[in-house]
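Format notes (please read before filing issues)

Several people have asked whether sequences and structure tokens are stored in separate files. They are not. Every record keeps both together, in the order shown below: the sequence lines, then the token lines. Line labels are part of the format and must not be stripped during preprocessing.
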Amino acid sequence: MYAVIKTGGKQYRVQPGDLIVVEKLAGEPGDEIKLDQVLMMGDEVGAPLVAKAFASAVLVETRKGEKVKIFKKIRRQGYRRTNGHRQPESVLRVVGLTGADGKAHKWDGKADLTTKAELDARARNLSPRVEADAKPAKAAPKKAAAKTETKAAPKKAAAKTETKTKAAPKKAAAKTSDEA
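Then the structure lines:
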């Protein structure tokens, strides 16, 4: 069963389980939203047939949309203006459709509240965001590496001083032979 709903001045064809992106709606992630402007349900079209029909959805996230660049220019006048805009939008998971006769078509899945940014990161095989507890564990090996470098540094310094002390007497010996 499918329905055509209207929200934010646009029409969407939905069925239970669909994930749609609409104009920003009020609410927190996890809230259930009732979309009551149903224009068509299955084969039923018209005001008396879909007057009491509605679609229920769960708000997954509210976010900013894609960037839109606005560039204005008047040639040969030195006039250029650049501006941008990101439209706020809501992501909804349609969980059920209820017809005017009261017959409900529910989605048997679970409305997951995973954001689109996390889904995109998973699709690109990127690791999930690092939590605050995990950061100190990563910092400990770096400190251990720094300690090993400081232990190695005195050995190198000792080797340099040995070469300087060996070279110094030879030069002094060379000068004494020139003087004589």
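For reference, the curators noted about this record: The radius of gyration is 35 Å. The longest helix spans residues 134-179.
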